[in-house]
């Protein structure tokens, strides 16, 4: 990215340097965006208490925003402590003016109470949040106590729906202040919903986590990521800043994220349908798939590929509506494909795979979302009894959802444009593939648009465990399996470091 995206943070100045604009600046620096810090309120604050709050006069707040609007227009705005109704209305006035010119994302961190207990919002300000600011919000990031003040008691899913009913586009109700072995946030967005989890860190220096998180969301939106991916990045960012050790004052020290968070595999969260009791146990040992990974819709063709030396073949069979002989056809294709010592993967149809004794299945994200509660229990039991599992992923939130299943591999695609199936995703490219390979909690398989052996070599060079070939191995193809396997070996001898991923939708 040649020019850093610009974001505005309209928030409070913490004289203790822990939360507010100080935390926002540290988060923006780690996210690689330019932050314009706009003071909406001044606080007399230390690491242990808030002694006073002094809202900036509305005309002074307006002057700050007017000065920025022409020279440093924002791609995203994050609001924190606003100080009062008049200040909030200055913000909404400028947001509406900016949106007349270009899209501007709004992330609302409803700072209603300090972590030390001081209240920052009276009833008129709460009403202004509900009626004026939140209806304009792209994302809201309340913690659980703030969600209660805004929309009342209830489970977090109901609270998120209530916030969306006010007009909020996406909601993440953060749970970092709660107890338990996992830090759990509830995400509800147009792309995904569920529990975003990371193992809880024992950290004394955790002041300003809410500010850091919301700024991380705004920065990711400014970089072009959709809401669900932005929340994944914000959780990684915030977790990276939780530090143990000595605090500068008597209270909690500030959260200090660093730019290296983006390539720290230990920070990738997992996305669960239901609250998990523990972190998913990662599969260990050699990769279940390695090198050339062929995909075909014919059992006889799969057998020929195995005989040519290919060690992993996926049998991709589609069941059409009204197919009265599905089970018989599937059984015949599987039996035709089986070869001792070879890895046969069956797509989608995991219950059929269990019935036929196929011990490896591949599921797409739509298959995971279609699972009922009983399906999830049965699939988890099958996994415990030895069923191996590969999962597709196309975005950061899908990678997080795949991680929750502790799969044997995670597919990243499409690496290049593909005509094999219609999908809304932009090509991942080799940069995203390298990031997946560095960050995923399972071996990564590159898939999509691989038509020439040199492309497979590039996939190997990014650190992937395997690369999928479909049309390039179809009967009559110009390239033999040996050509493809040689290309893999040549690419595997190279290596590329991962950097920032780019948005894929």
Automatic annotation (TrEMBL):
Enzyme Commission number(s) from the entry: 2.7.1.49
Which terms in the Gene Ontology molecular function aspect does this entry carry?
hydroxymethylpyrimidine kinase activity; phosphomethylpyrimidine kinase activity; thiamine-phosphate diphosphorylase activity
Q: InterPro entries attached here?
A: Aldolase_TIM, HMP/HMP-P_kinase_dom, PM/HMP-P_kinase-1, Ribokinase-like, ThiamineP_synth_sf, ThiamineP_synth_TenI
Q: Where are the transmembrane segments?
A: none
The pathway it acts in is: Cofactor biosynthesis; thiamine diphosphate biosynthesis
Q: Where is the Thiamine phosphate synthase/TenI domain?
A: 292-472
The record's section on CDD domains has: HMPP_kinase, TMP_TenI
Segments forming domain Pyridoxamine kinase/Phosphomethylpyrimidine kinase: 14-255
Reading the lineage from the top rank, the first entry is Bacteria
Q: What is this protein called?
A: hydroxymethylpyrimidine kinase
Q: Organism source for this protein?
A: Pelomonas aquatica
């Amino acid at each position: 990215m040649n020019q850093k995206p610009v974001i505005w943070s309209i928030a409070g100045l913490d004289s203790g340097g822990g939360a507010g604009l100080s935390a926002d600046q540290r988060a923006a620096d780690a996210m690689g965006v330019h932050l314009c810090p706009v003071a909406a309120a001044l606080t007399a604050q230390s690491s242990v208490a808030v002694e006073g709050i002094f809202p900036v006069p509305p005309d002074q707040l307006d002057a700050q925003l007017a000065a920025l609007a022409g020279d440093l227009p924002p791609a995203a705005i994050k609001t924190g402590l606003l100080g009062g109704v008049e200040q909030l209305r200055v913000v909404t006035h400028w947001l509406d003016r900016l949106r007349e010119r270009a899209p501007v994302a709004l992330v609302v961190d409803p700072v209603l109470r300090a972590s030390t207990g001081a209240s920052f919002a009276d009833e008129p300000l709460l009403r202004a949040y509900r009626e004026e600011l939140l209806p304009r919000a792209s994302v809201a990031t309340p913690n659980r106590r703030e969600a209660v003040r805004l929309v009342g008691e209830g489970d977090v899913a109901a609270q998120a729906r209530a916030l969306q009913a006010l007009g909020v586009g996406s909601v993440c109700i953060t749970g970092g202040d709660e107890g338990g072995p996992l830090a759990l946030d509830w995400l509800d967005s147009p792309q995904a919903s569920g529990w975003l989890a990371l193992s809880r860190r024992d950290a004394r220096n955790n002041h300003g986590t809410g500010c850091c998180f919301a700024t991380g969301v705004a920065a990711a939106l400014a970089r072009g990521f959709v809401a669900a991916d932005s929340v994944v990045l914000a959780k990684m960012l915030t977790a990276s800043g939780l530090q143990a050790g000595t605090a500068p004052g008597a209270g909690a020290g500030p959260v200090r994220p660093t730019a290296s968070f983006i390539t720290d595999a230990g920070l990738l969260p997992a996305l669960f349908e239901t609250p998990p009791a523990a972190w998913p146990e990662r599969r260990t040992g050699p990769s279940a798939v390695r090198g050339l990974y062929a995909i075909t819709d014919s059992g006889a063709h799969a057998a020929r590929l195995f005989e040519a030396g290919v060690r992993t073949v996926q049998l991709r069979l589609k069941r059409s509506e009204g197919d009265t002989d599905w089970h018989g056809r599937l059984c015949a294709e599987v039996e035709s494909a089986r070869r001792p010592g070879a890895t046969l993967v069956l797509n989608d149809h995991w219950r059929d795979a269990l019935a036929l004794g196929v011990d490896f299945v591949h599921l797409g994200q739509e298959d995971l979302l279609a699972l009922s509660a009983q399906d999830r229990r049965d699939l988890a039991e099958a996994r415990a009894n030895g069923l191996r599992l590969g999962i597709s992923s196309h975005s950061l939130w899908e990678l997080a959802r795949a991680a929750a299943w502790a799969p044997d591999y995670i597919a990243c695609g499409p690496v290049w444009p593909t005509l094999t199936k219609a999908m809304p995703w932009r090509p991942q490219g080799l940069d995203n593939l390298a990031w997946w390979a560095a960050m995923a909690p399972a071996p990564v398989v590159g898939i999509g648009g691989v038509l020439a052996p040199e492309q497979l070599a590039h996939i190997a060079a990014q650190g992937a465990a395997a690369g999928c070939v479909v049309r390039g191995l179809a009967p009559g193809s110009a390239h033999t399996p040996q050509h493809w396997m040689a290309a893999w070996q040549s690419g595997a001898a190279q290596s590329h470091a991962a950097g920032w991923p780019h948005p894929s939708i």
